[in-house]
Design brief:
alpha/beta
Length: 208
């Protein structure tokens, strides 16, 4: 498996600063916030090369379709944020109804902790349709600060042969995730969470 961080959690931090952090802690790459106009591809490629990172995926930032946006790979999120797709079975039905080879499934451990009775089982249900996983603990903080069962998750990911990225999304303990991403008083946690999460996940990956 590969490890990345979804860069929206760092607010308006420069991509160069983010890539330097990921390189420092041994990540494989970054997941870019899904707004193409924000980035110059040439600059992204140059910065990735300079820091030994890759652009591994693009994050969906729109929880419902609009005239100009679609839901290519639905991200099941908790009922408090949307009612369209809230669990893996909703996601699989969506994929089946759309019936396009371009549409796959994305899962998120923070949301799964609330909406799935068996998150590890949900991964097995998703099977080869799973193309991306967002990682945060049950309290949306770094891996190990909550009670999510990452060992069970990792076992299921290995069982289905998942070799794509685990994109970290740990955030400080405030109610609004978008506010948390911008709050400077939590800036030091960016390094702490990045280090804690990859160290703990790599250890679990080796164990299972």
């Amino acid at each position: 498996m590969k490890y990345s961080v979804s860069n929206w959690i760092y607010g308006d931090e420069s991509l160069e600063a983010t890539l330097a952090r990921l390189s420092r802690y041994g990540y494989d790459g970054v997941q870019l916030m899904g707004e193409p106009r924000v980035y110059d591809p040439c600059v992204v490629n140059r910065l990735c090369q300079e820091h030994g990172q890759s652009m591994l995926s693009i994050a969906d930032m729109y929880p419902w379709p609009t005239d100009s946006r679609d839901l290519a790979n639905p991200d099941p999120v908790i009922r408090y944020e949307t009612s369209l797709v809230t669990n893996v079975r909703d996601g699989l039905k969506f994929v089946s109804d759309v019936d396009s080879p371009a549409v796959k499934l994305h899962l998120d451990t923070f949301h799964m902790n609330i909406e799935e009775s068996d998150p590890a089982g949900a991964v097995l249900e998703a099977e080869d349709l799973l193309i991306n996983v967002h990682i945060a603990d049950s309290n949306r903080q770094s891996v190990g600060r909550g009670h999510f069962d990452f060992r069970a998750l990792m076992r299921s990911l290995k069982q289905i042969g998942y070799e794509r990225a685990l994109a970290l999304e740990p955030l400080p303990p405030v109610p609004d995730p978008y506010m948390a991403a911008r709050m400077q008083r939590f800036k030091d946690l960016r390094d702490v969470y990045a280090r804690e999460s990859i160290e703990r996940l790599r250890a679990i990956e080796m164990e299972v």
